[in-house]
Design a protein that fits this description.
This protein is an all-alpha fold. It contains 6 helices and no strands. Helix 4 crosses helix 5.
């Protein structure tokens, strides 16, 4: 709720959580974030996320690990996954607000 009502806080959260992932070319960045979104929508199932995206399961795992390398956050760690979720939603709110 705080991120939705305070756009500056939202932008700061996105930058702090995603870091260098945001510096990637737009197509690559959006592809990684779409993978993360599908993984959350699939309740953490890489197989279900792969089916949603029409990718192989290993592609989803590779992309999630890449997100981890870029952000310093491990998607398998519940606290760090929660941070990624907040960052993703804040990013999406910012995109909708443009």
């Amino acid at each position: 709720m705080a991120l939705a009502t305070h756009p500056d806080s939202s932008r700061i959260a996105v930058r702090q959580i995603f870091g260098s992932l945001l510096d990637l070319p737009e197509v690559e960045r959006n592809s990684l974030l779409a993978t993360l979104d599908a993984w959350f929508a699939s309740k953490g199932s890489t197989s279900d996320a792969a089916a949603r995206l029409h990718y192989h399961r290993n592609t989803v795992l590779y992309r999630l690990r890449r997100i981890g390398d870029l952000t310093g956050r491990d998607f398998m760690n519940p606290a760090q996954a929660a941070e990624l979720f907040v960052g993703l939603r804040a990013f999406q709110l910012g995109e909708d607000g443009r």
